[in-house]
Fold:
Amino acid sequence: MNLTDPKYNGFSLVREMLETPKIVGDFDFEASHETARVIRDAGKLFLTGEGSSRIFPAKHLVCKAMSGGVPLTVATEGARQAHEYDLSRFAVFGASNSGKTKELISLFTKLGGEGHKRRFGLTANSPSTLESVSDRSYTLRCGPENAVAATKSVVEQALFYCSLLGAWGKTATMAANRKEAATKARDVLEMELDPALVKKLANAPVLYFAGRNDGVAEELTLKTNEITHKKSDYLEGTYAVHGIEEIMKPEEVVLVMDPFPAEIEKFKTTLVDGVGMTVIAVSSRETPLPTIRVPRVEGYDSVLQLLAGWNILVHVGVALGINLDKAERARKIGNEFIAG
Structure:
C-alpha cells in the first residue's frame, strides 16, 4: 500500500496505517516511568479492555515479560469477566481508545468502590470517562482514527505497555532500535505482494490465522472481519492441525505468523497434502511454504509481523473492491458507556 496510488490513497485506513512508522520512531519509552515503578512494587499486573485495545497490546506484553524473564506476573482478560476476579493485589491497566468502553468503565468503577488504588487508564481521548474512574490515566499521541478498524493506536498501546518493563531495565534495546524499526515498518507496509497469493486470499471463503499467542494472529483475525469482510478464525497453539482439519476445505487459506520451524512440516502434511488447502507463512526466513518475508528488528518482530498482516489485508480488501473505512455492522466503539 502507499499514498501515491489512487486505489489506496482515498482511504483513511491506509493513511492511518502509514502513520504508524512515525509513531514507532518517535515513541518515548520514559513516559510511563512513574507508573512502571508502582507496577514493579505491586509485582502483579492485570491488563484489560475490549477488542483491539486488549488483544495485541496485552498479549504482546505477556510474551515480552515471560520471554525476558521479568519477575512480574502479567495476566489479561476482558473487563466483563474481570468483574469476577480478585484484583486487589494487582495493578490494573485498562485500555480504551474512546475512553468510554462500557465494560471497562464498569470494572474500574467497581474497583474504585472497593478501595482499589492502582487503576491506570490508557486512552486516545482526553478528557474521558476512563480518566475519571482511574487513579492515573495516559493519553496516546497517535491522534484520532477515522476508519472503523483500529490500527496505529493498537501499536502505540503495545509500545506503551512495553515501556512498563523499563522498571526492570528491559526497554533499552527497543529505545535504541526504534528508528531502524520505523524504517522497516514503512518497508513492510509498502511492500508489494505476489498477485497470485493476493488472488488466492481474495477468493478464499475463510481465512485462518495461526502462530504464537502473542496477539498478532488473533488481532489479524479480527482485522480480517473489519477490513475484508471475510470470515476468519484464530487457531491457537496446535489447533490448526489438531482436529479442525476435519472440516477445512481446499479453497480456504491459513496464514501462519512467524511459524515455529519444528511445526512447518506438520502444517504441510496435514493441511497442504491432507486437505489440499493453501498455507502461507509470514516469516523473517524462507520456509517450505509460500512465504511473505518480513524483516527483523530486535524488540519489534511482532510489531512488524502485525504490520505485514495489515498490508496483506489491505491488498485483499482492495482486490475485492471493499470500502476499507466502513463496515455495515461493526462500530468504532463496541459498547459505549453513556452516563446516567
